[in-house]
Design goal:
By secondary structure, the protein is α/β, with parallel strands linked by helices. Helices cover 34% and strands 16% of the residues. NAD(+) binds at residues 133, 197, 202, 219, 238-239, 266-269, 297-300.
Amino acid sequence: MIIGVPKEIKNNENRVALTPSGVVEMKKHGHEVYVQATAGLGSGFSDEEFQSAGATILPTIEDVYAIAEMIIKVKEPIEYEYDLIKEDQLLFTYFHFASYEPLTKAMIESKAVCLAYETVEKGRSLPLLVPMSEVAGRMSIQEGAKYLEKPEQGRGILLGGVPGVKPAKVLVLGGGVVGTQAAKMAAGMGADVTIMDISLDRLRYLDDVMAANVKTMMSSEYNIRQEIKTADLIVGAVLIPGAKAPHLVTRDMLKEMRPGTVLVDVAVDQGGCIETCKPTTHNEPTFIIDDVVHYCVANMPGAVPYTSTLALTNATLPYAIELANKGWKKACNENPQLKPGLNVVKGDVVYKAVAEAFDLPYVAVEQYLQEEVEA
């Protein structure tokens, strides 16, 4: 198969979807790999390294899309890329369709095959979302601590405090991968941490494994309203696979927070679990509403591209090789983990949560996979 790796063009997105090591593995299986010039520079990989691994370097993004049967990316295509995508072309990347209708409709019109990292499932986990959730969870505290500083219009409080001065209070909404990593990081920095979830079993687990300065609490609107009154940093870490995140912190709750409180919404690329959060960029990461600092960067891991690229490609490469070896239909028929990754196929929405998000017609993915079985 012909594999294309375009350079990411989203604001400050420095990750790359395939490393030179990944190119070597693809070549072992007989595939051709075309990489856009300078695609890996942001992550520390030169064109020469890709060439040494066996890739062909192409000068433009148009060249990569034109030649490739499968495009491997990191972030969803942006508007400039829509017209470059070909009918029947396989796109393997993060899409987060449920949070952005124009992207969904553009991919429907392209009649491409869109297989989303974030909805590939392994048991009850999302193996291609986990590594970036780990990075984003840890970064949420790193960035939150920064924006609590007075020059950034935060409360002017040191996350871990000092002897004789209490540490900051951190509230983490959601006890999944992001929330667990955020709580772990905040605890390590010495903060007073509370983590909320709706699963009592999950809270029991977290209570067992977390440090002594992490408390668990059942998530409810009442409890959230009580906790936000004294929280210094609030991290939104709630995810519903493939669907829009629910609003746990609503507009009216900002009035109950202290001036300079910092909100970090890690779920912003799935619509956000903080109602007032809208996607921002690394160039302009924050905005202020009611004296509350909002940090809502939609590609947080893009700020640490070396770590993020290696973490992501460690997870995605085996699936990418399987798709290249077998083609998407056979791979999805034979690997039940890949099947739920299909979101849009040849003009049809085949992932129910995406169809429901925009009231679009839904077609069961089995309709397409059955064709492969019958063939």
